Amino acid sequence: MSILAFRGFAGVRLEAEAIGAEDDPAVLLIHGAGQARAVWGSVAEALEMAGRRVISLDLRGHGGSEWPEDGRYDFEAFVEDLRAVLAQLGTRPVVVASTLGGWIAGAALEQDAAMLASGLVLVDTPVEADPDVSRRIGERLRATADLATGQAAWDRRLIGSLDTAAVAGRIAAAAPTIALPTLYVRGAVSEIVSRADAVAFVDRLPDGEFAEVEDAALVVREDRIDALGGHLVDFLERRAPRRSPEYRAGSDARTFRDALGCFATGVTVVTAVCPDGTPIGLTANSFTSVSLDPPLLLVCVANTAGSAPRLRETERFAVNVLQIGQQPTSNRFAGKGEDRFAATPWELGEYGTPVLAGSLSSFECAREAVHDGGDHFILVGRVLKAIFEPRRDPLLYFRGKYRKLHFA
Length: 408
What we know:
By secondary structure, the protein is α+β, with helices and mostly antiparallel strands. Helix content is 27%, strand content 28%.
């Protein structure tokens, strides 16, 4: 076991406990209000035995994490804490969260989910704005605080800091944007979320599953941990398997493509002008520098691309490296049946090639060589002129999706 420290929102120190081999796939456990990471003890041990690296986090104001002097326990502070922790991890874990933790996880993964996590499990998490449920949650927290003896495990200033009805409504609205494999686990006799509400929530998820634990009101309890652990291990083995997919020569080409997709790239649009003066172009992310002296670069073009014959023969071409605001441009030049240049600001460059306005950088090139490369051809260019904009961020492509730089 090791103790980990993270820097949360506004510098709040967050503490976590980690067990399992560092190279095993990670699972991040997030407890509910009025609890601490110890509530996951048996679950963490079961997941470790199943070959997972398990990180149990204390929320701000709980357990070993900092109890902020300003008493800031508004919902956004919790959400930004979790996003900060996920950004500091060296891997994308499956996030497992209950009650308040589930609200926090759902909101934190409402945007950029695939950049931060590889899966989500919500346990006993209210998913509809219900004043009666909010009242019962508040009463339970107050009762827990009143019964506590000795050193408290959580800061009682949390009570009254959250608008639970509004938070639950936000999670319900966020469901369609949580772009991760997601499992919702409910106690079959739950008082805080109905089966109908839970099923409706799962139906709105892009990739959702539903499970129930019989004879349980709250699932994260010592007497129901085995049932929860079974659902978790089953979900993890199916949706986040320990064994990495592998490609061997002659097997599924899609697996090979997915493996190549693990290399993050920029996105470019390659442009040229036909003999009759018509501009042509296509989106490409197989682009690299080749030489500084002489200044050479290359781009790979699919043989089946509509512009391929012209690009193979052209004497001049440009490579326009796209910035984060040019995702529509990338889509436009990757599609068919649209006048790409009519909807894209551009100008004719100094060497007669179309240069897309606002690009991160543009390279005007003379054809140096063309090489066959299987189902693509390799177009090598000698750079005649390059311009770039240092104040913009790149449009990135990773695992089949557009990405953007994330600064922790």
